[in-house]
Design brief:
It contains nine helices and five strands, in the order H-H-H-E-E-H-H-E-H-H-E-E-H-H. It has about 180 residues and is α+β, with helices and mostly antiparallel strands.
Length: about 180
């Protein structure tokens, strides 16, 4: 399968892409191939590619496909690059991000009530990193902005959608261990 010219071309596209590549984007590159065939082919290519080696993987992330190094190699890669992860987040940012991910859409006053502190600068940082986005305004007095996670959140944390987040019961189980 990996020797197939179309499969090789798809892998090349995934290799150079900075963001996850959706089936519709692949269909624009390969208009002669149906979206259904591309979807099937990408899944087959990912499965075979991930089976024949264990340093890089093709994963479904944020509604598309992306080529990443395996998580078990991240520390080695960090040592090689001699740098810390570029997208480090403060504890306040992680708390705010968790509140938004689990309670979205949510307003700044609602976030502050849950966390017990105001987090205007944290919201600004998360917006700049595109981890969250404004999703409109709440139909209440003052019409506060509603926040939700952005696509970059899914990409950053390697999730396909929010259903892959651990449940609160799973968190409790982890904490009790």
């Amino acid at each position: 399968m990996l020797k197939d010219p179309l499969a090789s071309q798809i892998l090349a596209v995934l290799f150079v892409a900075k963001e996850p590549v959706s089936i519709s984007q692949l269909h624009q590159v390969f208009p002669e191939t149906s979206s259904q065939d591309l979807s099937r082919l990408v899944k087959e290519v990912a499965e075979e590619f991930n089976t024949v080696q264990d340093s890089v993987e093709v994963r479904q992330v944020a509604g598309g496909y992306r080529m990443n190094s395996h998580a078990r190699h991240h520390e080695t890669i960090r040592r090689y690059l001699k740098s810390r992860p570029s997208a480090r987040l403060s504890l306040a940012a992680l708390e705010t991000l968790a509140v938004i991910a689990y309670k979205q859409p949510v307003t700044l006053p609602e976030i502050a009530e849950i966390r017990g502190v105001k987090g205007t600068s944290t919201i600004r940082t998360l917006l700049e990193k595109k981890l969250i986005e404004a999703q409109g305004r709440k139909k209440t007095v003052g019409r506060p902005i509603l926040y939700g996670i952005g696509r970059q959140f899914l990409v950053h944390f390697g999730l396909n959608d929010l259903s892959e987040l651990p449940t609160l019961a799973e968190f409790e189980e982890i904490l009790s261990s």
